[in-house]
Fold these 4 entries.
Entry 1:
Amino acid sequence: MSAEVIAELVAELGPLWHERHQARLVARPRKRTVGAGARHRLVFIDRLLATLMHLRHGATHDVPACWFGVDRSTVTRAIGEVRPLLAEQGCTTTPGTRLRTLAEVVDHLGSSGQTGITDGTEIRVRRPAVGRKDRDKFISGKNKQNAVKAMVVTDLQGRILFCRPGPQTAPTSPTPAS
């Protein structure tokens, strides 16, 4: 990706990420005074770059964690925040054209006569909590493990046209009884 494309993504997604981040902070009761607490060690631009690297090259979360000098869980959280923003913005194929759904991507590829490459994989996750309604959605019959399915569609140049986001809330393990 060129520096111009990354700058456009930062300009488009930065304010959206900041609004959501502030909304999350306001929504929960404060335990500390305003401005207290740890600062982000992974600023938005780094979060975006880590997400793009993960999506584009399939790097595990350990790789950007090592590059940016943060813990793997920080990168996992960052990718979980930025990936839905990328999905909502869609993919710009030509000026004025954005693809937001898989149906739009298929229509675009069919009308332009291009070939798309589809990649699907399973990502292992923790076992969901016992009381969770959709617990059975995380079970993989093929690998006999708890997993979420991820799908990416690219064109022949490697540009991501569609990335199906995983579940919005990560499965959590049950809290031990005290």
Note: The first strand starts at residue 91 and ends at 94.
Entry 2:
Amino acid sequence: MVLGQRYHHLPDTTPRGVDVSPLLDDPLLVVTAADRTVEGPIALRELDAHTLALPPAATDCGQAILGACRKAGFTPAARYVTADIAAQLTLVRAGLATALVPRTAIDPATSGIHTAPLDGHPIRRLLFAATRHTETVNPTTTALIAALRTAARQGDRATDLPEG
């Protein structure tokens, strides 16, 4: 079993012989410093006025953000470019940037930040389990996928994120 992610803007390129079991649809949230709280939900277009910390454009997440921003009518100008979410959150906490971060990548215990959903068309990634296709059902694999789905539902903590 392999755990993976795929952003919704990308085509499904699952190879033959592989079964994909969706676990969680994970939206990106707007993350600002706690003292710069923006009441959400936030229209993506509003981020054009923010100093941004974004992942590199060559990454799947970077492509998803860039594509969504272009659809919203602007090209984001990132002041900070890093795929390291911890670094993005450090820049946000310091009041240096606003970031777009997957909800499950944000520890609810993180202080000094505020999160808000995107208004309208969210940017989302699919978290999934991939297994080799077999003609017979493997009870261990079935049980593990069921446990992962249960954990994903229990961990879906949108209301438990820091708000200041």
Note: The beta strands are 2-7, 18-33, 42-43, 52-54, 78-81, 98-102, 113-119, 124-132.
Entry 3:
Amino acid sequence: MRHFRELLQEPVHTARGTFVKIAHSDVVELLALAGFDFVIIDMEHAPLGLAEVHQLIGAARGAGIPPLVRVPELDDVVIARVLDSGAHGVLVPHIQTREDAERLVRAARLPPDGNRGYGPTVRAGGWGSDVPRYRRLDRQAALIPQIECSLGVQNAAQIAAVPGIDHLFLGMADLAASTGLDPSDPAFAQLLATVADAAASGNMPLGTAIGAVPETTLPEALTACRFWAISNDAGLLLHGSRSALAEEEFVQHEDGHPVPPTHP
């Protein structure tokens, strides 16, 4: 299995992932079979506990698909636990300042670079059998601040300049909600461009989330994105189910009886 970082080293390929909200390992296996490049296990907007996340990380690794975890907040303990469980990185919401980014690095990195507790008898260390891998995964872990408010945008360049931060993620829905701007507003596009410029100046990949149905046009700043989170497992299930029921053979007459298929 390639590490998440390796996905972003291919210059002509935009890595495509999705959020996982459903606490079942089969979902991760299906997403891998569908061809997603990575998954983001979502603790912020789904009722997933550490034990469930541990199982989903294991399923992703078994299916050969890199797992990230979106933690619910900037929480040192949760960040350390999911990295010990073998996550390839963490997506951390509501990073607003350089100090937030510095705390993220300290929480995620082992000494001497951070203050994460050292304990290689976990999955990331092969349950104690592979201490070098434990150290290697620590250095490889992607630490991804999610920028989703005007203060975060204002400080994007400072956040990107923190040693150990080498990805940025645009939380567009929260940014629109927190600023009150419509996504079509030129002022909103300027906010996106500010974050995109910070990522470009730091020579780091930029990511964001989009819906299951691609937009006809995206803001110009988002053309620089190197990784996409496309909808989520529950949304994809809903979208696929509605699409299936909309097929001609499933359309019903007003009396409730199905229309016979018109194709052989």
Note: Residues 196 and 222 are 7 Å apart (CA to CA).
Entry 4:
Amino acid sequence: MPSSRPQYRVAIIGTGGIAHAHAEALAELRERAQLVAVADVDRTRATEFADRYAVPNVFDDPEALLASENLDLVHICTPPQTHAPLSSMAMRAGVTALVEKPTALSLRETDELAAVQEETGSRVLTVFQHRYGAAAVRLRALVRSGALGRPLVATCETQWYRPDAYFEVPWRGRWDIEGGGPTMGHGIHQFDLMLSVLGPWSRITALAARQARPTDTEDVSVAAVRFDNGALATVVNSLLSPRETSRLRFDFEYATVELEHLYGYREEHWRFTPAPGHEELAELWTHGDAPDITSGHRVQIEAILDAWDAGREPGVSLRDARRTLEFAAATYASAFRGVPVAAGELTDGDPFTLSMDGGSVPWEQIKETLV
């Protein structure tokens, strides 16, 4: 019997490295989503990409793609500097934009996107696929139910390694194009997942430095965080760590929940430890017959399609993405100003709402003084 679910029409703008993850995910979901067009300023690259994934229509201009195709969703897989302009273009064409992180380069740009959402009724969704792995969904449900007790302590570590050669790509390591270093472009996935579990944060005290890499941005940041619910957390974002890991640990009143992986997790990467006297909680963690799928792009794209089928708003909404970007901006503001930063403190007109560097990068100021 044929499926009664609609098949959604999808396009991809930008056919570089990350676009392949999107195309492969869509290929696995081909019965529900049809990839009908791609665009890239490098038409040769776009054509090779289209040939590889059997995409019928190729453009070298995203505006022409949006004008020519009847789309439900467009995946924006371009360098970060272009995310906000392309998302606005998509919304004005009546298409939902699914944009790679970061959603925008600044809180100001994010608020401008919100204004376009309000004007057009279209939406911007952000790729934070680790929210959608089965274990993360299960953990959030347990937290909401109160079964684990109060959250008390958390650790969030993105300790990756990128050699100097990584920054030979012209847009990497630049505030004006990439928006920041590992805080903005690498660790953001892990602390977004942490925020989705622990909820609103209230205060950040941070440090950041450019220790070794040939970049304008930081290559490491460290933050201490207080949450509205009283939990305390530490967050490390590094590109200097030869033994790479992505690690989250949550200590609740009645259990510890840990995750250690690198770029995507399965059930085997999680560990659940009930507190003495609460051993029965282990049964709540058992995943049963649920499919054990890596927390990659497919799980989030599938969740978007499921939400549309059910008439629900899909995630990750612009409002949720802004909370995560505000966490990054506050990390930079605290590190560069040398003071704690409270949630909501970075209001319109503050330099750190206009750009993540806030115009006050310490190592740039030292360089200017020496000159």
Note: Residues 8-128 form a domain with the Rossmann fold fold (CATH 3.40.50.720).
